[in-house]
UniProtKB/TrEMBL annotation:
Keywords: Cell membrane, Membrane, Transmembrane, Transmembrane helix. Pfam families: PsiE. It comes from Photobacterium alginatilyticum. The chain crosses the membrane at residues 21-44, 91-111, 117-136. Its main location: membrane. Coiled coil: none annotated. It is a multi-pass membrane protein. This is Phosphate-starvation-inducible E-like protein. It is found in: Cell membrane.
Length: 147
């Protein structure tokens, strides 16, 4: 009887997890919509601030950062929906999302106010993530060739 009780508990817990992930996907859509509104508002504020209709480099970097944040949220939403569909976390997509997040950091970084070791550490993370992403893309090819 223990096996049946544990199996019933596992099924109930899986349902809770499934609905939790669905709730997260709904909340992520809300975050994405709010992010798009924020990008629009940020761009509008930058355009109406003197000099009017001109974006400075700092304005563009702030706008790029906001764009990238929304794109990262979309990638996270894709991760959630794929998890709901396949019930598996796809490492390639997670790595791509992480690369996008670290790329956002690199794009918006202000090198004049950052310590050299911080820049070096960011570079190491970008290199490690890039190598990891490349390796993940190489694995299916190698296993396919060996068969």
């Amino acid at each position: 009887m223990q096996i049946d009780n544990e199996d019933t508990l596992s099924k109930k817990l899986e349902v809770v997890i499934h609905w939790s992930v669905r709730t997260l996907s709904i909340l992520m859509v809300f975050v994405i919509v709010m992010g798009v509104l924020d990008v629009g508002w940020t761009l509008y504020q930058r355009i109406i601030t003197p000099p009017i209709y001109i974006l400075t480099i700092n304005d563009m970097l702030a706008t790029f950062g906001a764009f990238m944040a929304v794109l990262i949220a979309i990638e996270i939403f894709i991760n959630i929906t794929i998890y709901l569909r396949d019930n598996v976390i796809h490492v390639k997509i997670v790595m791509a999302t992480a690369l996008m997040a670290i790329s956002r950091k690199v794009i918006i970084i202000d090198l004049e106010q950052i310590d050299v070791m911080y820049v070096f550490a960011i570079g190491c993370v970008v290199l490690a993530m890039s190598i990891g992403y490349w390796l993940i893309h190489q694995l299916p090819r190698k296993s396919h060739i060996e068969e």
